[in-house]
Amino acid sequence: MRPVSILMALTVVGVLYMAILERDRLVAFATGGPVTAQEATTAEAGDAAEAAQAEAPAQVQTIAQQAKTAEAEAGTKHPPISVVALKSTARTVDNAVLLRGQTEALRQVEVRAETSGQVISEPLRKGTFVEKGQLLCEIDIGTREATLAEAEARLIEAQINYTAASKLAESGYAAETRAASARAALQSAEAAVKAAKKDIERLHVTAPFEGLLESDAAELGSLLQAGGVCATVIQLDPIKLVGFVPETQVDKVELGAMAGARLASGMEITGKVTFISRSADPLTRTFRVEVTVPNPDLRIRDGQTAEIAVAAEGAAAHLLPQSALTLDDEGTLGVRIVEEGDVAGFLPVQVLRDSVDGVWLTGLPETVEVIVSGQEYVVDGVPLKVTYEGAS
């Protein structure tokens, strides 16, 4: 081997040794000062930190962009939830006020005797229809005829005395006080005659109005005292429907408004509002409402239970199944709807009234797609796979 080649090889090895293993000393020699290993390491760390600081904003922006992209991809890839929806269009319906009440006789009175005595008439049985002025009870006249005859005789005597006293007073043969006393006696006798006649008239107890006997008339031979009940008469044509409306709805009820009712027997009747109380019940805070209904055939009885609907101003409402109602997180009553893009939404509603076909709701747009099945499993913004039940 040539000596030159060996020297060149050794030179290369020495240069590599200095560049790799003795780098710090080589740098120090080149810069003209000593550099320790710690200073070199610190310098390298500072350079790395500056480079990392320069690159940090770009990395943060890149990570944020990647997060947004991942979130968008996750929302797009979320599987839609299958629901059943109903296309509904608002309709104008009567905004009726619903009441629970009962029928009540237009008039009911206990007919009482005004004088005492024994009943001498055959009793009328309950359920009998009586006309106004018809005899219900007749009381024995007793000694009343004799009392009347005595009163009439005293009247004749008082008239004679008064005539004589008046003539004497005019002639100056008697004092004016005597004539005045005779006049007073005459007036007293006239009053006694009227009282005796009136007492005889009171022997006949009659019906104050046409109606039905709710009780038997006083029995033959029974003794009636003044104020004793002869019979009870009720008037059923027309008849009243009586209900109580809460204070939140009383302003919706007006005099003369049409009203309908369904009795417990299934009979349906109609009438008009004839009375609205101005004073609330202190316990229930409700107001009495009366509806007058014709009852010519007397089929409607006193005291029957009735469901009363009083007509009010019409309102636009949707007829939906009661199962479509739900609550949001704040407890607001409403329905879930299908919004544009087939995503779920929520709208609050007010219940107008219920029926056998569903509930009438207000507070919705004129046309709306309401979720009627699966609404409990979705929230706002959730994508939907919609199957339509039909339009209403």
Automatic annotation (TrEMBL):
GO terms for cellular component: efflux pump complex. Gene3D superfamilies: 2.40.30.170, 2.40.420.20, 2.40.50.100, Helix hairpin bin. This is Solvent efflux pump periplasmic linker SrpA. SUPFAM superfamilies: HlyD-like secretion proteins. Residues 245-313 form the CusB-like beta-barrel domain. InterPro entries: Beta-barrel_RND_2, MdtA-like_BSH, RND_pump_MFP. The keyword Metal-binding does not apply. Residues 107-232 form the Multidrug resistance protein MdtA-like barrel-sandwich hybrid domain. GO terms for molecular function: efflux transmembrane transporter activity. Belongs to the membrane fusion protein (MFP) (TC 8.A.1) family. The lineage of its organism: Bacteria, Pseudomonadati, Pseudomonadota, Alphaproteobacteria, Rhodobacterales. NCBIfam families: RND_mfp. Residues 148-206 form a coiled coil. The keyword Protein transport does not apply.
